Amino acid sequence: MLRPGQVLRTVAEDCFSGAVLTPDDLPSKVCELFNPVVGPFYVQGAEPGDTLAVHLLALDPARDWGMSATFPHFGALTATRTTAMLHPPLQERVWQYDIDRHASVVRYHARRSDYTVELPLDPMLGTVGVAPAGGEVRSTIVPDAHGGNLDVPELRAGTTLYLGVNVPGALLAFGDGHARQGQGEVCGVGVECAMRVTLAVDLIKHVPTPWPRIETDHQLMSIGAARPLEDAYRISQHDLVTWVAELTGLDLLDAYQLVSQAGRAAPGNVCDPLYTMHAAIDTAILRGATVYGGVHRRLRALAGAMW
Amino acid sequence: MLRPGQVLRTVAEDCFSGAVLTPDDLPSKVCELFNPVVGPFYVQGAEPGDTLAVHLLALDPARDWGMSATFPHFGALTATRTTAMLHPPLQERVWQYDIDRHASVVRYHARRSDYTVELPLDPMLGTVGVAPAGGEVRSTIVPDAHGGNLDVPELRAGTTLYLGVNVPGALLAFGDGHARQGQGEVCGVGVECAMRVTLAVDLIKHVPTPWPRIETDHQLMSIGAARPLEDAYRISQHDLVTWVAELTGLDLLDAYQLVSQAGRAAPGNVCDPLYTMHAAIDTAILRGATVYGGVHRRLRALAGAMW
Amino acid sequence: MLRPGQVLRTVAEDCFSGAVLTPDDLPSKVCELFNPVVGPFYVQGAEPGDTLAVHLLALDPARDWGMSATFPHFGALTATRTTAMLHPPLQERVWQYDIDRHASVVRYHARRSDYTVELPLDPMLGTVGVAPAGGEVRSTIVPDAHGGNLDVPELRAGTTLYLGVNVPGALLAFGDGHARQGQGEVCGVGVECAMRVTLAVDLIKHVPTPWPRIETDHQLMSIGAARPLEDAYRISQHDLVTWVAELTGLDLLDAYQLVSQAGRAAPGNVCDPLYTMHAAIDTAILRGATVYGGVHRRLRALAGAMW
Amino acid sequence: MLRPGQVLRTVAEDCFSGAVLTPDDLPSKVCELFNPVVGPFYVQGAEPGDTLAVHLLALDPARDWGMSATFPHFGALTATRTTAMLHPPLQERVWQYDIDRHASVVRYHARRSDYTVELPLDPMLGTVGVAPAGGEVRSTIVPDAHGGNLDVPELRAGTTLYLGVNVPGALLAFGDGHARQGQGEVCGVGVECAMRVTLAVDLIKHVPTPWPRIETDHQLMSIGAARPLEDAYRISQHDLVTWVAELTGLDLLDAYQLVSQAGRAAPGNVCDPLYTMHAAIDTAILRGATVYGGVHRRLRALAGAMW
Question: Name one GO molecular function term (chains A, B, C, D) (predicted).
Fold first, then answer.
């Protein structure tokens, strides 16, 4: 059980349950369980209609390597189970990345040539969620209104994720660390790595949150999860527009106009059962509006107190 | 007629043909022509199978104000002619922005309250295209493989747009200046303003380009245009993956993997007849690969020579 | 518990749990539970990897009236929670139909005029499903590979539905009777009525079924459930093509060609969390191929024995 | 030039321009022009805002064989130019059908086995269109509001197609005969055959038609063309609902409800640049409403007079 305000430190295993150890370990052969999560944690006092704030204080790769792969019939540029086609699957192939925390890079190695290149280390959690609404139980591979496998690279250390609570105790779970991923996660897999996670939770009582939201020091984001991708865009923009209207007192069309010119948008994943996109706006544009009672700043201060 | 290497200076009228002069001028009442373009220009020597490079040396708003609007049944958060629904249209409303070139801001004014806020000035061209393939003639509102109404905010001064040539002379046309727009252009309209355009064209002979591509000083982008939005994502990522493979010698799956971790993606528009997304990668990751014979750097140098 | 071969007679309440009794009873006001189902039933001997055959012997409306409605933000021609828009909801309105079993008609009455017209009575079950795979628990409003809220009007008396078994006992449940519905169920609601259901179950051991399939006396159908709608089409056609290849010995492209010319297709629902489409082919074209060991004919014979 | 009321007899070549003569003639090798059409014909007196009625009196295959094929990256179960993927293309293969007009069948022959089967002969025109609106020129492969490559198997002899007129003279063109096709035309190609076409045209002055509509002796249909497929569904259902409201005096939601229970729907094509679906309702349900001044019955009577 977690208490509001409590800090939790743990290690989350990678999406392959740690079973892919070399480029010769094909996930379809060696993995028994995909996308394991830590949890669920019962959050004391959480009730349906509340909002759970999950602040990521630190994300540190737990190993000095990460793995990625192509999977048969999974990813954006391949036929899949639902975008069903008559093509044979693409080759299943594994890539091993070096993770250098001191240099803050991950190193890519081609499999069919000696090409190698360094990319910025940018740790994130692919999966953070609570129990879904309506008594449903969903696979950890699914992103939706309850969070889950959002695969949004903006979910970095220093951010607070807001999730609506659907059941008593909220039942928080998380995992699927990526040393980094591209926007859209086009092949379906990030640089998967076991992750040391330090997070703090808090509760905003009696304030519902319809879709996952992220707060950073300088911006607000709404996340939509749907297919087709334009619906993920619509959900995220709609949530941001209505949120901006509420925060600024703007009428709905005035907020629509402001977000139309000031908003940013990007895909999280275009491969999971539901696709995700985020809509973002700088808080400066909202003239310093405070959201959820300032919980992000309070939790953010914990980081300063700890290190 | 334009010669390769030639610099062109002109002014492009806004998407309202300059007919919206105050917030009381509803586009549906005052506009006879939407999205006028400058051109078409016959580019000397351009033949089908070549690539036209269009380098934007400078984009400067031609007036100290811009206009935006909601249109009946146009935009991402409204029923449209094709996402047909039984709702009455949202209100048609116009917003006037101040454009302050010295402070480099555009100033938003709410219509139903006294809320006002400054956003960064970020001039772009919504529409740059050549004649389509296959003898087609398309409205200037349409983005597709020939360019057209891409509405991609990354099409700023300092960038080079590559378009495949489909007809002798290419027939370049452009317009639809925005003082800025959000990613996805959610309400369907940017901060529309007449734009002083300085551009240079060049030709890469016998090199085809399947979809619009953008080069900046530090990155390469591919643009897809399609519905649903995931197909715009697929096209742009597929073009970038195959382009990266060609530039680096990586095999196709190795390039797929690299773009999966290093790639960026964002929507241009989610409102036009076809939606657009771009896929981007830093050229540093490609170890300094030169594309299209280095034409971007040569055209970029023109800017230094002129100012 | 049900034994293979066993016949079950029961009554399934309507999707409003019987709470909508007059056109003045708005579902959003009077309903506490939507889409209740009868079950789940444990089917003796059913194991993952088997196929459950559910044969509908008879479907008879249990009342002489049925109800339909428009719901706020539900249906194909309205903004919804995921096709999120800024429109206010359409009006919530209820229609009461007379059901005349002797004349075999349902009678529509307009609410804003005295227009009335008779439509053929065509009873069906909207929801028939087993427990989903992977330990998931889904709302009864969801159609997917496990069946569920398929809302396919072809699920009439005289048909056999094949569902892959995911958990021991299969856990069959059903409900959501419609006196009839249009293809696509465009407003999101059929002519909802409590239904007397007579069905028989059987098991095909060690034969998996990837997506729901229907057999009638003269045709085979595959059902896909997905968004966007083309993916529901792709799934259903892909399943039918591979099934035809298996039944006829045709190679995959030969089967693709045959289905391309001989196949039928129609939407079930275009309103639920996943859309459904069926793909159908006449068994005569397959030169009398027998599927699932002829279980449909054996179960069909039960009907003759009973009446 | 055609006069309203005039009957035209002609032969339309097949979509391969007649160049595929045996199963060894791969379209990508032997075809210079795809989907040729007869026309355009200037219809005397047709003005923008009118409706052109095209009544198909007779469709007779002009040869005793037809051809079908799989194309690289074309069709619903394959990666395409816009649903871009990394798979190599499926094999290009040609099938030759026997067309037996006396027995009213087409005979399928497998290519990799000796499987052969007869299917009902059901001649239709894939492409019937007028000049598009807004000065556009579109490829004959494109279906849209102007008609074009609708690929709707319901476009048989005995039906009247209504198309809105966009330019003086309408500019009617047609072709792409199919001896039959499945619903959705899943592989992208029907049983293509040169077709003897007998049609009559008429004009309904000052009556616009927003999307293609079909009238048969007993039903009305609206056709939508869009991607994703749900938008083709939405367009067709929306057009049918508003049309029914206009014909019956029902208010919009009452018409929505009636179509929800009485409407039929099916895909035409799920492979062309825009997908098509039709929405249909029996005229009996509309209590004998007469549309477009009864032009269908008058043109239908021509058939009786001619044979």
Answer: hydrolase activity, acting on carbon-nitrogen (but not peptide) bonds, in linear amides
Most C CBs within 10 Å, among A80, A82, A227, A233, to test the C interface = A82
Q: Residue A208: is the preceding peptide bond cis (ω within 30°)?
A: no
Q: Per-residue pLDDT tens for B28-72?
A: 999 999 999 999 999 999 999 999 999 999 999 999 999 999 999
Using the beta-carbon criterion (under 8 Å), do D86 and A78 form an inter-chain contact?
yes
How deeply is A102 buried, as exposed, middle or buried, from its count of CB atoms within 10 A (0-12, 13-18, 19+)?
exposed
Q: Verify whether the Cβ–Cβ distance A115 to B91 is below 8 Å.
A: no
Q: Are A214 and A221 in contact (CB under 8 A)?
A: yes
Rg (alpha carbons) of chain A, rounded to whole number? 19
The answer to whether C260 faces chain A, any CB pair under 8 Å, is no
Burial of B294 (0-12, 13-18, 19+ CB in 10 A): exposed
**Residue ranges in chain C assigned as alpha helix (H):** 27-30, 229-248, 252-262, 295-306
**Nearest-by-Cβ selection for C270 from D97, D230, D257:** D230
Mean pLDDT, contiguous 10-residue spans, chain A (307 residues):
94 98 97 96 98 98 98 96 98 98 98 98 98 98 98 98 98 98 98 98 98 98 98 98 98 98 98 98 93 96 72
Whole-angstrom distance, CA of residue B54 vs CA of residue B7:
10
CA dist D133 → B154, D55, D168 (Å) = 31, 22, 11
CATH of domain D7-204: 2.60.120.580
Cα–Cα dist D295/D220, whole Å: 13
For the A7-306 domain, the top CATH level (class) is: mainly beta
The CATH code that applies to domain C213-306 is 3.10.28.20
ipTM, interface predicted TM-score of the complex: 0.97
The answer for C 178-207 residues in CB contact with A (under 8 A) is: none
Nearest to C137 among A137, A234, A238 (CB): A137
| Domains of chain A by residue range | 7-306
Angle between helices B229-248 and B252-262 (to 10 degrees): 120
